[in-house]
Amino acid sequence: MASTKIINVLKDDKFEEILDLFRNASAKEVIFVLPKTSKAFKNEEHFVILENEAVKSDKKVSLLCSNPDTNKLAKKYKFDVLLAKDGNDKPLIKTVNQFDSEKDKERIEDERELDPVNPEEVIEADPDEPEESAPEVEEGLPLKQISKFYPAMYQEDSDENDEYQVVTVSKIKRGLEGIIKQGGKPIKISSGSERPVSLGLKKKLTYQSVDDIKNIWREQSERIPKERINVWTGINSRTKKSFKNFPKKSLVALGIVSVILLGTIIYLSTGSANISLTPKKQALDMQLKVSASDKISVVDLGLNRIPGQLFNIEKTASQVFQTTGEKEVAQKARGKITVYNEYGTTPQVLIATTRFQTSDGLVFRTLKGITVPGTKVENGKIIPGTISVEVIADKPGQSYNIPASKFSIPAFNERGDSGRYEKIYGKSDSAMTGGAIGKAKVVTDLDFNTAKQTLSDQVTKDVEDSLKTQVSGLKVINSSSVQLKAPESTAKVDEAADSFNMSIGGSIKTIGFKEDDLMGLIKQYIDKNQNLIVIPEKLTLSYDNLTFDDTNNTLTFTVNIKGNGYAKIDIEKIKTDLADKSEKAIKDYFKGAVSSSVESVKVVLSPFWVKRIPEDKERIKFQINY
User: Fold this and answer.
1) Minimal CA–CA distance to 334: which of 193, 418, 433?
2) What Rg, from alpha-carbon coordinates, does the chain have?
3) What 8-state DSSP symbol labels residue 312?
């Protein structure tokens, strides 16, 4: 295995190719020989990549280049920088090039003489000059001591124990100049774009004689067939000569027969017919009663039913509104409390006007009778029974507008039932409001109705928007049928309050269905009853008489159908009937057999010489215009 590998880089070599050679090199030291204008090593990022790859593979990198900027970058990334010796006695390095293809590998290097003083000069060999054998070179002798040598006549040993291995990145681009003609005369090859660079390296060389090289080329030339075949016509030279001896009249006759035969084939195989047909139409104006349900899975023509999907959406909108009225009032505060029963499992009945008293002695009474549930056990814990009830202050006035508080039932204490007095009580989660005496702001009719309309519009929009996001392409025909609940307000008309909070709930429960299912039902219905074809784009549908059965989740509606129906056209039968018919027969056919279903027809035969419909149905093209 070579301990050092030399990579000769040309000006236009790509960095990716150089990096692949570096990765695949088995040597521990790699020397890059760079031209002054190498494009691959102008970019500093390439030095970073090469440095990382060198560290990863534990390889030493050296650069030989006359460009000071390249050397500066090399030193920056801790690469060794080698400098070429000055003077004309520069030892040469023989580079082993890659090849473009397997054919290139079979070729040998052109015979060239290099002047050791001026390596760039190429001396063309004189075919009349006696052949000169390669000089004997002692092992380890520097190349500068050789007066004249043939680079194409020696090669590096491929022994794995060589100390150095030299390769070139760029592939050889060969043209006609890179081939030695049969007869042995070498053609001049000039490659002035890259120069060999001297490194002062010593290398053991092996040689091939000129006779050996000539024998190799002679063997290659004998393998080439003597008869050359034309790549365009497929006719070899011997056949071409035989055509020259063939009578010209016979050739002309053969050409005419070929043209006639070709014309006959085209005539028989290129005919086609394009038939453009407009069927007769009939106006439609009809109604069809349809039902859609999530309990139906397929279209049922007998009962006019189609599959549907149930949608049930509920929304609530609430907002605080300011009051605008003002008048003299004597009004009691109101609010809600939650009554708790921790006394026992037996429910407790409380009559209407039951008193609930705060720790400050303010009394509020219930507006209706209630039954407080008894206690229950959940997960080992005793849970008290609860119920909410509306209460009103015992007297009017602002003093009853109290914050959230705890309430006791004084009736239990008055009759000495301390157990119930302590275990049955009330709590409010919000303040009592509305208590007033004298001039105060009140809710007017306009305040209340404006709030109601605002919230109704908002909750309707919320329900409809939510329905649109859920239908996912289904048809919903009663999306505007949003059911609104009665408004709930903290203050009613003429009640004293600086502001009031109103909330309104809305909901919709309906069935959505696929329009394709409905159109399929319509098509079947019209086909069965009127024997017509309908085109969905030619129909106008509207809906009315919508009813929703909440028990069976079924939407029933009437669909109004307007538009045109068209007579049925049997295309395959027409193709069969018209096969191989003449122009006159075509006209007679459309006037008679199918005149009841065809409004108009246009038949185009092509090319211009075709006078009959083709027998091949594949060459009969139909277009129906509705």
Assistant:
1) 433
2) 53
3) E
Q: CB burial class (10 A; 0-12, 13-18, 19+) of residue 93?
A: buried
Q: How far apart are CA 275 and CA 138, in angstroms?
A: 92
344, pLDDT greater than 70 = yes
CA dist 532 and 523 (Å) reads 9
Q: How far, in Å, CA of 211 to CA of 34, rounded?
A: 36
CB 570 within 8 A of CB 624: no
Tokens representing residue 142 in the block: 């520097």
**Pick from 312, 317, 322, 356: which is nearest to 336 by CA?**
356
Question: Nearest Cα to 606, choosing from 272, 267, 263?
Answer: 272
Beta strands of 385-532 (E only): which ranges?
A: 385-396, 406-408, 424-427, 436-442, 483-484, 488-489, 499-512
Q: Name the amino acid, one letter, at 296.
A: I
What predicted TM-score, i.e. pTM, was given to this entire model?
0.45
Phi-psi region of 234 (alpha: psi -120 to 50; beta: other; left: phi over 0): left
- For residue 434, pLDDT over 60 is answered with yes
DSSP letter (8 states) at residue 142: -
Supply angle C-alpha 62, 67, 69, rounded to 5: 90
Q: What pLDDT, in 10s, does the model give residues 184-235?
A: 444 443 444 444 444 444 444 444 455 655 565 566 555 544 444 454 445 5
Contact assessment for residue 27 and residue 51, using Cβ atoms and an 8 Å cutoff: no
Tokens of 478: 């009663």
Element (H, E) at 591: helix 583-592
Q: Which residue in 176, 94, 96 sits closest to 143, CA to CA?
A: 94
From start to end of 134-230, where are the E strands? Answer: 154-156, 164-171, 205-207
Could you tell me what percentage of the chain is helix, strand and coil, using 3-state DSSP and rounding each to the nearest 5? Answer: 25, 35, 40
